[in-house]
Design goal:
alpha/beta, Rossmann fold, seven-stranded mixed beta sheet
C-alpha cells in the first residue's frame, strides 16, 4: 500500500507504537488477513488498520536487512527493496574521509543513519514528505542524530558538504527494474552538477558498465556471502577498471585487474570452480584464474577447472566425477547404470533449462544424488557430473 503522512503520524504516535509492539508476533499471512483486519478495525479506522497490517508485514520482511532494528522502524515496499545489506552500509560508511555528508534521495534514512553512526554530520534530502517522515521516525527510534529535510535534489546540492551519497530510484511505477542509468529517478547525469569532493552513487548490480564509464571514477560490485547485492560508483576515485568486493565472515576481500589475463583452456579436471558473482560482473574471471592457476573450460564461459583445491573466498568448488559431450540418451543411461535418481542441475552457456532436463531424464526416486553442470568446453556442449555438496 501507499502510506500517507497521516498514516506515518499514527504509526509514530505512542498508541501506534504500542499497537505494533502488541502485534509483533501476530500471523500476518494472506490467509489471516481478513481476521486480523477485522480485529484491528474494532479500534482503528480502515486506513489505520491497513497501515498497521502493512507495517507488520514490512517489518517481518525487513529482518534480513535490519536484523536488530526492524521492529522499531517504518518502511515502504520500495524503500525496503532498495535498502542495502547492513554489512554494505557499514562498509561504505567506513571508506569516506569527509566529516560532513549529504544523502541525496535519502528515502527512509537507512544510509543516512549508517554514515551518521560512523561519526559524520549528515543531512538527508528527499522530495517525498512521507519518506522524510519515515526517516525522521527511524532516526529517532534508533537514537541516531541526522537532519532530514524536504527538498528536490534536482535543484542543487547544499553548500558546506564535502561528500555526497546518491541513491536514485531504480524501479519504475510498476515496480520493474530500470536498467538505463539515465532513466533512474532522478537520472545519473544529475551528479555532474554536484561539486562534492567525495561522491558515491549506488547503482543496480545489473548496470551496464558502458553507461557509467563516461562518468569516470571506479565501479565496485559487492557481494555478501556470495550473493551479488550492490554496485557502487566511486566518482571521486581515479578512473580504473571495475573492482570486485566480497564481504563475508572472514572479512573484506577485493579483486582488481592487476594481473596478466593469459589463461589456458582445458577439459574438466578434478575440480570445477564457480566464481563469486561480483567477479563475473567486474569481468575479472581471468584475473581470478591467474591467481588460482586454473584453466577455463571455454573462452566465453565463467567456469574454472583445477587439479587441486586452492583455498580462496572467491567462489565454490565442485568435485568432478566425470564429464561427457552432451547427449540426453547417453546421459540418462549413465545415471541409471550408477543408480542416480536425484540430480541438481546448474547451467551456464547452455540452452536447455534445468527443469526441462530433469523432466526428460525421467529418473526414479530413491537412489544416489549428483550435480549436473550443463555448459560448454572448447565451444562444445558438455555435461559435467559432480559430487553433491
Amino acid at each position: 500500500m501507499s502510506f500517507s503522512q497521516a498514516d506515518i503520524e499514527y504509526l509514530s504516535s505512542d498508541p501506534g507504537r504500542r499497537l505494533l509492539e502488541s502485534h509483533a508476533h501476530s500471523d500476518v499471512s494472506e490467509a489471516n488477513t481478513l481476521a486480523l483486519l477485522t480485529q484491528l478495525r474494532k479500534t482503528l479506522s480502515p486506513a489505520q488498520a491497513a497501515a498497521v497490517l502493512s507495517t507488520l508485514r514490512l517489518r517481518k520482511k525487513a529482518r534480513l536487512k535490519f536484523p536488530h532494528q526492524a521492529q522499531r522502524m517504518l518502511f515502504t515496499e520500495e524503500s525496503l527493496q532498495q535498502a542495502s545489506h547492513p554489512r554494505i552500509r557499514q562498509y561504505r560508511a567506513g571508506l569516506l574521509g569527509s566529516d560532513k555528508l549529504v544523502d541525496m534521495c535519502c528515502g527512509i534514512g537507512s544510509d543516512s543513519m549508517a554514515y551518521a553512526q560512523s561519526g559524520r554530520q549528515v543531512l538527508g534530502l528527499d522530495k517525498d514528505p512521507v519518506r522524510i517522515a519515515i526517516a525522521r521516525h527511524n532516526a529517532a527510534a534508533l537514537g541516531v542524530t541526522v537532519e532530514f529535510a524536504l527538498a528536490d535534489v534536482r535543484a542543487s546540492m547544499p553548500s558546506g558538504y564535502d561528500a555526497a551519497f546518491y541513491d536514485p530510484s531504480r524501479r519504475d511505477a510498476g515496480g520493474r527494474r530500470i536498467r538505463d542509468v539515465e532513466c533512474y529517478v532522478p537520472p545519473l547525469s544529475l551528479i555532474r552538477r554536484w561539486p562534492a569532493k567525495e561522491l558515491v552513487v549506488k547503482l543496480s548490480p545489473a548496470v551496464a558498465l558502458a553507461q557509467v564509464q563516461r562518468y569516470g571514477g571506479q565501479v565496485e560490485f559487492i557481494s555478501v556471502d556470495g550473493d551479488l547485492s550492490e554496485a557502487v560508483l566511486w566518482r571521486h576515485r581515479q578512473s580504473a577498471p571495475p573492482l570486485a568486493t566480497r564481504l563475508d565472515a572472514s572479512g573484506i576481500h577485493h579483486l582488481s585487474a592487476d594481473l596478466d589475463e593469459h589463461v589456458e583452456i582445458s577439459e574438466p579436471r578434478a575440480w570445477l570452480f564457480e566464481p563469486d558473482p561480483a567477479v563475473l560482473r567486474a569481468k575479472l574471471v581471468r584475473q581470478l584464474a591467474a591467481i588460482l592457476d586454473a584453466s577455463l573450460l571455454d573462452g566465453k564461459i565463467a567456469y574454472l577447472t583445477l587439479d587441486e583445491i586452492v583455498h580462496t573466498p572467491w567462489g565454490r568448488y565442485w568435485q568432478v566425477l566425470d564429464w561427457m559431450p552432451f547427449n540426453l540418451k547417453k546421459l540418462r543411461r549413465y545415471l541409471v547404470d550408477r543408480g542416480v535418481s536425484q540430480v541438481t542441475v546448474k547451467k551456464r552457456g547452455f540452452p536447455m533449462l534445468p527443469e526441462e532436463l530433469i523432466a526428460r531424464l525421467r529418473l526414479k526416486q530413491g537412489g544416489e544424488s549428483r550435480v549436473l553442470v550443463l555448459t560448454r568446453c572448447r565451444a562444445r556442449p558438455v555435461v559435467i557430473v559432480c559430487a553433491p555438496r
